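Pipeline run #58 for the internal structure catalog. This entry was flagged by the ingest filter as a single-chain record with no existing model, so it goes straight to prediction. Upstream metadata was stripped on purpose; only the residue string is passed forward. Reviewer on rotation: M.T. Logging verbosity set to normal.
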Amino acid sequence: MELKKFIGLANTVDPEALPEGSLAQAINVDIDDQGKLHRRRGLQLAAAGSFHSVFTSSEDVTFAVLNGDLCRLDGSMHTTVIQAGVGYDKISYCQIGERIFAKSRTQALRFSAKGPVMAWGVPLVDSFTLAQTSGIMPLAQYRVAVTYTRSLDGLEGGATVQQILASGGIAVTGIPIIGGYTANVYVSTPNGEVMFLVAEGVGSSYGISMGAQELGVPLRTLDIYPPIGTGPLATQKGRIFIWDGCILWATEPYQQERVRRATGFRMFESAGTFIGAVVDGLYIGTETAVWFMGGEFDDASLAIVSSDGAPAQSPQQIDLSYVTDGKEQGVGLVFMTHAGIYVGMPSGKALNLTGNTFLFPKASEIAALFRRQDGINQFVGAATHPGTPTGSARFGDFVDAEIIRFKGD
């Protein structure tokens, strides 16, 4: 038998029933679009250490956590620590313009490709104490709020609110002092609901003696919180979307450091594993299904893409012409489910590229990238499995892959 073209791996049929050109194994080779075999490149150690959470910015600057510190890497793999002590929890990233946003279970950071690291979002005031004091305020119920304002750019954070029955005046004490932030104090009119600014730039305490003026500056950040969740992240139309278990949070439009807790979320029946944006919507992966959410976040519709769950991952953007023979144009997403590798297009149309030919072991997480190397378009993934067998896979335009399975220790 003469083989003129290799079409990739297949394991959905017995080896003796493989279609012509299919392979049971493809060890250390890649297959190009013409079905030709290419010897796979070798590996060379670039840097040693405990690395995780690697990200490359649009400026082609790479960041990674090395031995618990967030580092910037140059072309020679030399590292510069930009934020020490971020720990070993996975960090998710996204970028809007020059700003890079990073989120983990314990970290919420914002930085640029070559700039310093700062906190992502303005913190809430942990606590403060109210007591009656002297003044000219009538006996009434008063609502008092304290906020932080970031000194660098004047961004005001959410409010911590308390209530007190008082006459005369109100002493506000015990406001925690945080470097780089000042505090603002708001108070309501007697028995009122809306709070108005009475002092800004205060320290750890302030005395309210005259009450609020209704024509003053009202509190505008009630129900505003710093970014909530752990990741993964995605961005679209000026918002950042953040997974937190079964809840998908969205920052305020074009205000990526503010989340409105009362309305800025959607709930799903299982924990989120990925999120990726196309021009008119979001592909949303969970442990039990993959969805497409089209339209504006607040009233978006949900359509099922796959009833199979997906491992934790970062979807990769791809030129759709690579995988549709030029029939589709624009940018899509490549992502992996438990049923195969999908390409997601605008409007929620998605194709399973591998489901009919290759089945993958169920993975809990996959570290993936899309690249063009030696003239071959490749979706490259290293998968982590919850038990044995474990394995890693490397995929091309369709399924040019090597699966290595280990049993035992």
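catalog note: The first strand starts at residue 8 and ends at 9.
catalog note: Residues 45 and 77 are 10 Å apart (CA to CA).
status: ready for reviewer M.T.
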